[in-house]
Amino acid sequence: MPPIDTLKKISIKDVAKAAGVSITTVSRVLNNSYPVNEQTKQKVLETVDKLNFQPNAIARGLVSKKTHTIGISVPYITNMFFTEVVQGIADQLKRIGYSLILSHTQGDGDEEMKVIQNFLNRQVDGIIIMDPFIESVSPEFYREIHAQIPTVIVNKYFSSDELVFVINDEEQGAYEGTDYLLRLGHRKLVFVSGFDGYASNVKRAGFMKALAHHRIPDEDYLILEGDFTSEGTYRLLRKELKRLKNYSAIFCANDLMAIGAMKALRSQGYQVPQDFSVLGFDNIGISSLFIPGITTVSQNIYDLGRVSGQTIIKLLEGKKVPSRHVLKTSLVIRESCQEVK
């Protein structure tokens, strides 16, 4: 049990004294109620972190008429990609004393609309919608939400100047991943996409663009549709193994699918990368721990969350932000791909 003095509750007066500012200045920073010099603001926030100061949310809400909460909607809480993005968001919100309410939709459009309505009922100050179900929910729905409350859409994009998007350039990432396989000498490639939708479509477009650039004929590539899970990909590739014998490289739409692909290949006695090169997408934490380490296109997942968190904070402060913030992907080379001998 920690010493009694370490359990002493830190007050706003303690923060002000440690930061060398007035109590009023600390209050203005925490409540975003009045402009404060950026250098002073950062000093106060760093002091809040250092002292682990926890403002009384109820009291702050009564004064500012804010709940100091952000609602975050994710399709699947079990997917490690979304876990890392949420961590990046949470770290930014913590710096200004905000909490998050996390809800998952299981990738269902109707459930997503219910979740967002629940956020509004709970009077959150802003909403972050991750991987919105734009395939079945009208864009007008998202516009109406943003008109009511600061809203940021993460990891999907559709044309709309009224909304704010934070995304990765997944098409370029898929192009660079495919180009890498082709430069290794692979000329017979398989692309395993997820179910039809934005994430699969942009990656497929990058894959096809690279094939066209290298003048790969139609008969030398194969596109299979999976479900973004390792289990589903394992079953799919077990079923398609006879067709796969004619190919030398498999590009999966995410790292979980790459794990499922390698498991399917191993179950039939094939080795990675000796018999098949396997490329993933995302660079989730487990991709570096798997054996062999998965060569993958990194989406800089934590940064996607960090920028999303910074963007919602700017909206809360009434600042202007670009309609679309696009992050660059990068290729992470490990051991699951090798040059054709």
Mean pLDDT: 90
| Topology order in helix (H) and strand (E) letters | HHHHEHEHEHEEHEHEHEHEEHEE
Helix content: 40-55%
Number of helices: 12
What is the CATH architecture term of the largest domain?
3-Layer(aba) Sandwich
Number of domains: 3
Strand order of the largest sheet: 2-1-3-4-5-11
CATH superfamily of the largest domain: Response regulator
Number of E strands: 12
Structural class: alpha/beta
- Provide the β-strand percentage band: 15-25%
What is the class of the largest domain in the CATH system? Alpha Beta
Could you explain how this protein is built, in words?
Helix 1 packs across helix 2 (23-31), helix 5 runs parallel beside helix 12 (301-316) and helix 10 (230-244) packs across helix 11. This protein folds into 3 domains: 1-42, no CATH class; 64-168 and 301-327, Response regulator (Rossmann fold, 3-Layer(aba) Sandwich), CATH 3.40.50; 170-299, Rossmann fold (3-Layer(aba) Sandwich). The chain has helices at 12-19, 23-31, 38-51, 57-64, 80-95, 109-121, 139-148, 170-183, 198-213, 230-244, 255-267, 301-316; strands at residues 69-74, 99-104, 126-130, 151-154, 165-168, 189-193, 221-225, 249-252, 277-282, 295-298, 324-327, 330-332. The longest helix is centred in the N-terminal third of the chain and has 16 residues, at 80-95. The protein is elongated. The protein is an alpha/beta fold. Strands 2-1-3-4-5-11 form a 6-stranded parallel β-sheet, with helices on both faces. A 6-stranded mixed β-sheet has the order 7-6-8-9-10-12, with helices on both faces. Keywords: DNA-binding, Transcription, Transcription regulation. This is LacI family transcriptional regulator. Residues 10-64 form the HTH lacI-type domain. It comes from Hydrogenispora ethanolica.
